[in-house]
Amino acid sequence: MRIRNLLIWSTGLAVLGVIGLVAYSQGGVGVDKPVAAHEASMDLTSYFDGNNLLMFVSNVGSFAYDDLGVSGTNAGLCYPPGSGIPLLYASGFWVGAKVNGSVRVAVAEYSQDFTPGPMVNGTYRHDDDSCRVYKISQGDTPLTNPDYADWPFDWGAPAAKDYYGRDSLGENGDRVPLLKGKQALWTVFNDANPANHNSGATLPLGIEVRLYVYGDDLSCQSRNTVFLEYTIINEGANTLTDTYVAIWGDPDVGNPVDDLVGCEPSRHTGFAYNDSTDGLAWPFPPAVGMRLLSGPTVPSAGDAGWQAGIDRWVRDARNLPMTAFLKYINGTDPDNPAEIYNYMRGLEPDGSPIIDPTTGLPTKFMVNGDPLLQTSWVDTELTDKRFMLCTGPFAMNPGDTQAVAVTVAVGVGTDHLGLWGTDTVFAAHTAGASDGQTFAVIMDPTQTTGHGYQVTFELAPDESRYDWTLRDLTSAIDVISDWPNQTGNDDYPIVDGMAVKVISPASGVADWSVPSGTRNITWAGGADGLHFEGFYGAIGWASPASVFGSGQPGVPITRVRNVLLKFASVDTSGQFDPSDPNVSYAYRFGRGFAAPPAHPEFAPFIINTGSGYSYQQFEKSVPLSAWDVESDPPRRLVIGHLENNAEGGMVDGQWWPPSYTIADNVTGDGPREWLWIYDADYRETVDPALCVEAIGNPLPIMYFLTVARRGEVPFETGDEFLIIRSRINTDEDVFEFTAPSPALRTDFPGEGSCHPGDSISSLAELWEACTMAHTRFIADACECTFTADGNSDGWVNAVDLAMVIDAMYFGGPKLHDARCPRMRYDLDCDGDMDAVDFQFMIDHVFFGGGTPCEPCTGLTIPI
User: What is the pLDDT of residues 724-740, one digit of tens each?
Assistant: First the structure.
């Protein structure tokens, strides 16, 4: 099954502090996710960034969750790098088991049942700052990285091994931290503190969990993947029976409310994808997936199971596969231990079997169909989802150890489910500061020119957009002129064998943030009517004239600005001090004011009974000020607002939106306490030009807000809300690229190269690369300069394979620049690593088969 393609973005990974004003995922429309109290030793700021992905890792069981919002959003895995666009809002490690027949669970979700650090004497360790997440990268030394110097070997953090399986020693005689790939993180946590068991409210299981996270960027296959290896130790006094492990995820693929999920049991995978581009500046919406690389081991005579993280084979055992995949919708989360445990077992929360609606038969794998072909059970609910990859059951006696390895990967396709079978050339952004992107899809490689091309932009005559032109720099000819489309769909002309796709974010509002104080406004109760582009539909670049009249925005796109709202103090009834400097004179308008007052108390405020959105008066009536913060110094802006003469109206002469729990602020018979921000300098004297009916006249309104309040809450001095405009393509932006020469590719790219067209074609195929990379890391865990093309003849062939065999087993030609650890596969225990062992390695690594005939006790594969 083909779900997503892996395209390597040219964008470099931004520093964490620049990741984002983007706060795209806030937990679903109208729902705020809970925040846990934090111990001093909780490490919630560490992250993996060793390749194209940036993923947060904590020491309390959660990952891909920026709990503190240090990146500008709580989403803990964003893509492309530096964009702040979320793929995973949060993920975590779950364990459930029975102790003497009673269910106990330990869950890492938005709050965590785990405590930092290892267990001590059968119980949890008291708060200790040394129980952090440790992070090392290639090139680190004890002098350059405290985490390298303080690597907690005594707590089980892995050490590098030499050829003979002994701990490697550095120049000073100290042990050397194990570094798989380019970057690795290690931490340890436990569930032994009863006070921390909030999610399931059970007694502790008594488990210690060691987590090793790693990845690299050596090849196209590995740049969008991260590996996680969990080692689970039963440090308590209880036997755990019917034990299950789950990797839980809250995917937010761009906009969180329109995600779809699925699974492929044969590949032990679960994934989330989008139904559209969400209006964001990615060429195709990505998918995010997780795969169980190796599950816990259970007894199985004659087999050998691999325990990742511990890096050892277990005789007469096999690895459990993914045994269940579950999904549920935000707001239907399991809320007690029995429901959590039933989900992990592949059952409905009440313990009844899951029924596949396409077959009518029980299944443990929800939405296991093919979304490309739309066959079998396919997800069709566009909403905010959660999913779980589960494996079990197994038992753990006191002192037993188990291991689970998973990978997280990102893939990209030509549409929300698209295949990718053509080459793609990404353009360099050589000028400007937009969040746009340009790339050429090679449709006919025999017609490409090998020429250089340049994309530039020009403001359209109506100033509502920028159009783009494609120029052949080599021939000095414009091959496409004044093309408007920048959506990323298929409406692009094909020239010179290419479909050049220019993509820009949607015009208007891109995002929002809270620079100071508390956010007391919400999209809930204000987003379901006009469907604006910002704040989940409650703020937009629009005016009454553009929404209900002429269709033209109130100000041209060139005048849209970042606007900061500064709130005055207001009590819950809407009363404020008119002398507060942030209270604004505002132009008040009325809807339905030509009709009799809907309530008698409305009469004093109906001054003009004209039709439409009639102008009423200019008074201090809005308890906030609006500032264009892109001006130097910031300039204060004019404000207007609307009141609605209707049964559910709140006509009282001032702007005070309702609580979303009380009224819908968009419906025609509701309050419609709407706010308008003008592109005009604020003044405290009336401007007659603005005292006109609002729908039929082109008022210079920049932003239209239909927001509600987040409950019966006041506003406080110091509360601020920033409206962030889209960084669209403008006449300051330039993109350039070189087309391929008019010939089909015949060369064979080596490992590490990422030429156009070399991409893995889908997430499904990416999983195979993940498994290969995982196996390769077992054998190649140090920094080497090994190249498969050992004799540098430009080909990878039998000569190179012979050199590998010689180097690994017979001391032949040296292909490394330093002595590196190598695998020992003395599987028949004859004292030699010879052709018999090598044949097993070939079978196991490359073909997925191979079982040692006589695995010896204590057999290790040292790293």
Answer: 999 999 999 999 999 98
Dihedral class, residue 426 (left if φ above 0, else alpha if ψ from -120 to 50, else beta): beta
**DSSP one-letter string for 803-857:** HHHHHHHS--S---SS--------TT-SS---HHHHHHHHHHHHHS----SSPPT
CB atoms closer than 10 angstroms to residue 581: 10
- Residue 758: name the closest of 228, 219, 160 by CA: 219
φ, ψ (nearest 5 deg) of residue 491: -90, 65
Query: Cα dihedral angle (554, 556, 562, 566), rounded to 10 degrees?
Result: -20
Q: How many angstroms separate the CA atoms of 206 and 233, rounded?
A: 9
**Beta pairing class for 584-591 and 635-644:** parallel
Q: Where are the alpha helices (DSSP H) in 726-834?
A: 763-779, 798-809
Rounded CA-CA distance 261/249 in Å is: 11
Which range has the worst mean pLDDT, 239-248, 295-304, 395-404?
Answer: 295-304
Report d(CA 760, CA 757) in Å as an integer. 9
Q: How far apart are CA 530 and CA 676, in angstroms?
A: 14
Query: Cβ(31)–Cβ(74) under 8 Å?
Result: no
CA distance linking residue 389 with residue 321, whole number of Å: 10
Three-state SS for 475? coil
Q: How far apart are CA 189 and CA 583, in angstroms?
A: 50
The SS3 call for residue 590 is strand
Q: Are 808 and 800 in contact (CB under 8 A)?
A: no
Say if CB 773 and CB 780 are below 8 A apart.
Answer: no
Hey, which of 311-325, 516-530, 589-603 has the most confident mean pLDDT?
Answer: 589-603
Is the Cβ–Cβ distance between 404 and 363 less than 8 Å?
A: no
Question: Is 39 buried (19+), middle (13-18) or exposed (0-12) by CB count in 10 A?
Answer: middle
Question: Cα 243 to the chain's mean position, in Å?
Answer: 29
With residue 250 as reference, give the H or E element that holds it.
strand 240-251
Supply the pTM of this predicted model.
0.55
Q: Rg of the Cα trace of the chain?
A: 30
- In the block, tokens 């445990």 appear at 341
